[in-house]
Write a structure and sequence with these properties.
Fumarate Reductase Iron-sulfur Protein, Chain B, domain 2, 3 domains, FAD/NAD(P)-binding domain, oxidoreductase, iron-sulfur
Length: about 475
């Protein structure tokens, strides 16, 4: 009788890839997790219970065929595992690195609920695709037949690139427009290298270009070219700009020098990793070296900022968050990594203003909080504890308070572009279609600031809708 390759979670404990020691990893921007060896990947994949209702799959926005590619990995069928993973996910090696698996697939693993420790789904996903790249199984797109229709995509982030991939596979001509000098959006300039090394993103960009996707970089819609001009060139347009407008603080002292936006700080750091000349970094403005750093916020962007500050050589790094650890929106895994690297978290702490000397920030005026009754979202609302204020010394303050959409109707001179009261674009669920004929929108510009995996799903779904629309038009024309 054949040996059972799965259901080994009782005999085999959960084992993540080895993490580099904090004393070593905080000195560079390399990824902190080592790669699984083949035997270890097979062993960890074999812990999957192959349950009848795979909650890992149903809680993945892409509904990845996780039990299938775990079984294929456990039995050494790696090329098939990659094909299965790639079938539902345009960028599995990126999701394997940056998805909050603890809140999605792994957080809903059945064996985790039974006390055996979740399957290391993210680490195996990363291993599968990295192996595929090493073995040469990842090939440029070669459509079965080329089509004359074209689609313009505004924004080269994960949503736009996922749509580009799917459209090119159908033979449609695709041009991606982006105001930056490199494709990838936040994958390239927002997420630090210790979570996502940039060659991982660039090789996907190169693969798309080799598959026939045209990139128009350093192209700012509304400035370098009008939206109407781009729209006139294509049969359909996808808006995938993301949300880049930083939420701000309006309080005493907020205009002092040394108070910076998270996106500016992270972009400068990532640009330096490419060897770019970055005036704001070289001048010291967006460089944490030798400074007491305070980061305000509790999301994943805040975690990126505190861990980047450590690597830049800050003398101290503190994170202020107005709720407690259990209620923070960021990944618990990232919080643990930050603590290991020396970051101090000041829970139940909120800024009320800033101190300065000659216009340069010297500290954050902090008010201590407690959690009261739940607010409209169901989370306990923070309340001020009177008389518990203090000043946290700081030479650099980084605001990581989240992002909002830019005013695209005004920037692009498109007053009829439908937006919500939050400024996000109104688009149909699943298809991304807007009320403007042939104009679609995907990702954060529709959802608000969200996860990369949701942007990928939106891009893929929108591409499917556009292909169906173009097919229908072609069928009518052929009659």
């Amino acid at each position: 009788m054949a040996k059972q390759p799965m259901l080994k979670f009782v005999q085999i404990d959960r084992d993540m890839p080895q993490k580099r020691a904090a004393t070593l990893r905080k000195n560079d921007f390399d990824e902190i997790y080592a790669e699984y060896a083949a035997a270890k990947a097979e062993e960890q994949a074999s812990r999957c219970s192959q349950c009848g209702v795979p909650y890992c799959q149903s809680h993945c926005p892409l509904h990845n065929n996780i039990p299938d590619w775990l079984r294929l990995t456990a039995t050494g069928r790696m090329e098939e595992a990659y094909a299965t993973s790639q079938a539902t996910n345009t960028f599995p090696e990126i999701c394997g690195r940056i998805c909050p698996q603890d809140r999605l697939c792994e957080g809903n693993c059945v064996i985790e609920q039974s006390g055996h420790g979740t399957v290391t789904i993210g680490a195996v996903e990363k291993y599968i695709t990295d192996t595929a790249w090493d073995q040469g199984w990842v090939k440029p797109i070669v459509p079965a037949a080329e089509r004359t229709e074209s689609v313009g995509i505004i924004g080269a982030g994960p949503g736009g690139l996922a749509a580009a991939d799917m459209l090119r596979r159908a033979g449609i001509q695709v041009t991606v427009y982006d105001r930056s000098d490199r494709a990838g959006g936040l994958l390239m300039y927002g997420i630090p290298g210790f979570k996502l090394e940039k060659d991982v993103v660039q090789r996907r960009n190169d693969l798309l270009a080799a598959g026939g996707v045209t990139f128009e970089l350093n192209c700012d819609i509304g400035d370098d070219v009008t939206f109407d001009a781009v729209r006139a060139k294509h049969d359909a347009i996808i808006i995938a700009t993301g949300v880049y407008k930083s939420r701000d603080l309006s309080m005493p002292g907020s205009g002092a020098k040394g108070i910076e936006k998270a996106i500016d700080f992270l972009t400068a750091s990532n640009r330096k990793s490419f060897g770019d000349a970055v005036k704001e970094f070289d001048s010291g403005r967006l460089n944490a070296e030798g400074k007491k750093v305070v980061v305000i916020g509790g999301g994943d962007t805040a975690m990126d900022c505190v861990r980047t500050s450590v690597r830049q050589g800050a003398t101290s790094v503190k994170c202020l968050y107005r709720r407690d650890r259990a209620n923070m929106p960021g990944s618990q895994r990232e919080t643990q990594n930050a603590e290991e690297e020396g970051v101090v978290f000041e829970w139940l702490s909120a800024p009320k203003g800033f101190t300065d000397a000659k216009g340069k920030v010297t500290g954050v005026m902090v008010q201590k909080m407690r959690l009261g009754q739940p607010d409209a979202t169901g989370r306990q609302a923070p309340e001020v504890i009177e008389g518990a204020d203090y000043v946290e010394e700081a030479d650099l303050v980084i605001k990581a308070l989240g992002f909002e959409p830019e005013d695209l109707p005004t920037l692009w001179d498109q007053p009829e572009l439908p937006v919500t009261r939050w400024g996000t674009i109104k688009a149909a669920f699943q298809t991304g279609e807007t009320d403007m004929d042939g104009v679609y929108a995907v990702g954060d510009i529709v959802r608000g600031a969200s996860l990369v995996v949701w942007a990928i799903k939106d891009g893929r779904d929108c591409a499917d809708a556009i292909i169906a629309r173009l097919n229908a038009k072609a069928a009518v024309a052929a009659e």
